[in-house]
Specification:
Two copies of one chain form a homodimer. Chain A has 341 residues and is an all-alpha fold. Chain A has 13 helices and four strands. In chain A, strands 1-2 form a two-stranded antiparallel ribbon.
Chain lengths: 341, 341
């Protein structure tokens, strides 16, 4: 009798915690939080809506992503600042580029992981998608500093690259700067990192611990979710310094877009991508949470609440796609030489 | 009858070309050229003589090799200058390190591939092996610029790293700078690249084309093999500028070791690792071959001969081991911050 009763209580507790989780999923869904779909067809609709991605394009895009010869110096690749080994970012406050130039606006490198889910690219949202975005840093003087023509000449001087473009796009492909950026972007589209959080949103009640669920609930209740929502848990344009001034607002001259709007960063893998904010001045999740409470929401988030939300944020660290490090086709005698000095 | 006769002639031709190849293998062996052994036991004796390498150490060594947090700035890893995607080197004349400092002696980054077969490390051969070598660039001001203590603090501040060291070396392991360098070196020991040349030396007569065999034969006849021999096709200390002065000798102040000796570079993957020589001033194999003929051997190697030897050298491009790009454990709040500026 006693044993049966205990089992019933345990079962009841399970149902009850499961019911709590179900309520939380509903609350999250109502707050416009969405999972990275586990169903591959659904995911593909999001990351490859035109059905463009093929293994050949993916492999080529990966090579270009890792190829430092896309920079003037031959020393900086996309992966330098958006390092797939380090949460898709670079661990420093402001991006460092060609000739060790810091970003002139003191802007922090955003993660490339899940960037496909952003509604706009760059901190000021000036770019609508990754194929457009990828053209920027390659050319920017303080980043990779390579004029379009140089990039085209470098890639076209390497027959193995041209053959890969032909295999990917057909014999008549013209290997233009835009085509190179497009191909990099297709690779970036696949850099999505599903996490336990996504399993939870899809109904697996025990995918998040009790503490993580509490943190998620608080994240919604406090209003963080008003900017950090949708699949990216961020990624849309939002007003900045709504209530109070950001303590480090004077580090760098970034003031958002023409309307003072800022592209909210994704919170996925946020535990791996310190330092935080557009100018990389905050190094802990708790301080970042409290700062946003004050600056954006005009509320005081206490230490305990910040810790709880941080516990949830850590559950956003996702599984990274396995990437085999490429062996790049060698330069030829015709390849424009690096200008590193 | 006629068919049989033709078949006999073909067979004869085959035997004959095979016999030529056999003679060339003997000639190469007599000249102390040696293959990377295809038998795994033989290879292991060379790259892991103490039987130290385990999957856990290898994975950890790979992570450390790719981790830019071993540099002061968090921006430069071993792989920055010894890029496994680019023949194990960096494509620029002189290595560029911390704060974009060029190597003060204008020295070119040697390839890490097959470095385990070198009899000494660094251009002046001052280091006996890779475990010792790996300590140098991490600390050197113009390279990764990280004091030992900083590297130890960074790695020890990341529990996932400490756990990996414990899994690799046992619970009582002390994660010292030396242990970190040792582990990187073990990974580097596995970066060997067998090629068709090795198959040829092991008796597969058609592994090299007729043209490549002719180039190899000429490589031996001209005397290149007097410095470029053994498994690395180089890798030992040799006198430099034996007969004539190197045209670019004044670029940088490198003059070799105390006795004017220079560590001969491996010629494996040489087609992938331009520019050439200690100060990276020559960009084509043919010019490099002719220069060495004049400077080291006091002979005139004509264009046709240089082209033939270059054809052989291209056959030294080997198969690279597959490397899955690591996902590195994230920094913690205790991890010393990057000093990038």
């Amino acid at each position: 009798m006693r044993k049966i009763a205990l089992a019933s209580i345990t079962a009841l507790a399970f149902i009850s915690s499961s019911a709590v989780a179900n309520d939380l999923v509903k609350k999250a869904t109502d707050a416009n939080l969405k999972p990275i779909p586990s169903k591959i067809e659904e995911l593909n609709k999001l990351i490859d809506p035109k059905g463009e991605i093929t293994p050949a394009k993916l492999e080529l895009g990966k090579k270009l992503y890792f190829d430092p010869r896309l920079s003037k110096s031959n020393l900086i690749s996309c992966n330098t600042c958006h390092n797939l080994a380090l949460g898709g970012a670079d661990t420093v406050s402001a991006a460092i580029g060609h000739k060790w130039t810091a970003n002139p606006h003191h802007l922090n490198s955003p993660t490339v992981y899940n960037a496909v889910f952003n509604k706009a690219q760059f901190w000021d949202g000036r770019s609508p998608h990754l194929a457009d975005q990828a053209q920027g840093p390659i050319q920017a003087g303080p980043e990779m500093a390579a004029p379009k023509e140089l990039v085209e000449k470098r890639v076209n001087s390497i027959p193995a690259y041209v053959e890969e473009f032909q295999a990917a796009y057909g014999k008549d492909v013209k290997v233009t700067f835009e085509k190179i950026a497009d191909t990099i972007a297709l690779f970036e589209h696949t850099l999505v990192t599903p996490s336990r959080y996504d399993e939870f949103l899809e109904g697996k009640a025990d995918a998040l611990t009790k503490e993580e669920q509490d943190g998620l609930s608080l994240f919604i209740d406090k209003g963080c979710v008003s900017c950090h929502n949708d699949i990216a848990v961020g990624g849309s344009m939002q007003p900045f310094q709504v209530v109070n001034k950001y303590k480090f607002a004077d580090v760098g001259d970034f003031k958002g877009d023409a309307n003072g709007m800022v592209r909210t960063p994704t919170l996925r893998n946020i535990a791996e991508t310190a330092p935080y904010f557009h100018n990389g001045q905050v190094w802990t999740l708790e301080e970042a949470v409290k700062t946003m409470g004050s600056v954006q929401l005009g509320i005081d988030i206490n230490d305990k609440e910040a810790a709880s939300i941080a516990t949830f944020l850590k559950a956003l660290t996702g599984k990274k796609p396995e990437v085999v490090y490429p062996v790049l086709p060698a330069s030829t005698y015709d390849t424009p030489k690096p200008d590193a000095m």
